[in-house]
Amino acid sequence: MSISSSTTPNALTEKVQEQSLWLATLTSEVNKVIVGQANMVEKLLIGLLSGGHILLEGVPGLAKTLAIKTLSSAIHAKFSRIQFTPDLLPADVVGTMIYNLAQNEFLPKKGPVFANFVLADEINRAPEKVQSALLEAMAEKQVTIGDQTFKLDEPFLVLATQNPIEQGGTYPLPEAQADRFLLKVLISYPGKEDERLIIRQHQLSEQQKIQVVLKPEQLLEARQTVKSIYMDEKVEDYILNLIFATRQPESVKLEKLKPLLSFGASPRGSIGLTMAAKAHAFLQQRAYVTPDDVRAVVAEVLRHRIGLSYEAQAETILPDDVIREILNAVPMP
């Protein structure tokens, strides 16, 4: 992979630094409301920059929904929220055909998925058929209603939240649906001092107002710059070695992982890891990717793309445990 012949390394660096200026403003706006979740905010920005959908998982009350709403409020774009419930139908998500008596014909009625930012709140509260209603929109940026196909406006991003699978009344995401998410971010509890700030912030008579600081055109322009960020062939090989280690752990002398894995990351994992690493480099105001950029996002990109066997689940082994073993086994360039 190389830099475009029309863009020199110095010019690309200047472009990255110039375009990343709005990141500080955007982060500042989000931090007005979201306290103690720096990792979540960073991963949301990576999703924005790489055009990848994001799945946030954590117990209730950790500001998952609030973070997504706050981020959307700071960007001048159309926002839509879908509350996933057990009785939700696919037509409630994408839309359906409605009979128009005056015109004596069926006309398409677009659903809430027709927006720039779609919050799929508690996505695992609805059955698999409803979760899968988002597949076409997430993969192809289009929706088919009846015999008509509609293109979705750019930028288009699905930001989903879910409670841990072991909680009652939830349905696990189908593998094909989970693979459409660029990142799966696990949200943990804030520290004591951060929670003190949360308590004090909640007692304020007036809640912080979020200012619109970013236009969709700026975001789309930044995405093009992210794609142009230089990745050396050695870093590309590092990504491929990590991905192939999830499929063939014996190739990196991790035979012990073989019975623990039912399947490894798909080529979407390779693409996702590349784009997320480039977005991370952009956040660091660099025009090139380092192995540390890859390691900074590898868990979020791969944890939902690795299938664990029954043996691994019986031993309470988590995808992150497997990823950690692979990172230790695959040599860095």
Structural overview:
With 333 residues, the chain is α/β, with parallel strands linked by helices. The chain is built from 15 helices and 11 strands. A 5-stranded parallel sheet has the order 2-5-8-1-9. The chain has a two-stranded antiparallel ribbon with strand order 3-4. It is globular and about 70 Å long.
List keywords for this structure.
single chain; 333 residues; alpha/beta; 5-stranded parallel β-sheet; two-stranded antiparallel ribbon; 15 helices; 44% helix; globular; disordered N terminus
Major sheet: 5 strands, parallel
| Rg over alpha carbons | 21 Å
Q: Shape, please?
A: globular
Helix content: 40-55%
Gap from first CA to last CA: 16 Å
Pfam family, one: AAA_3
Organism: Xanthocytophaga flava
Protein name: MoxR family ATPase
Family: Belongs to the MoxR family.
Short structural summary:
The chain has 333 residues and is α/β, with parallel strands linked by helices. It has helices spanning 9-19, 21-31, 38-50, 64-73, 90-94, 128-131, 135-140, 175-178, 192-202, 216-228, 233-247, 267-283, 291-302, 310-314, 319-329; strands at residues 53-57, 79-83, 95-100, 105-110, 117-121, 142-145, 148-151, 157-162, 181-186, 261-263, 307-308. Helix 1 (9-19) runs antiparallel to helix 10 (216-228) and helix 3 (38-50) crosses helix 12.
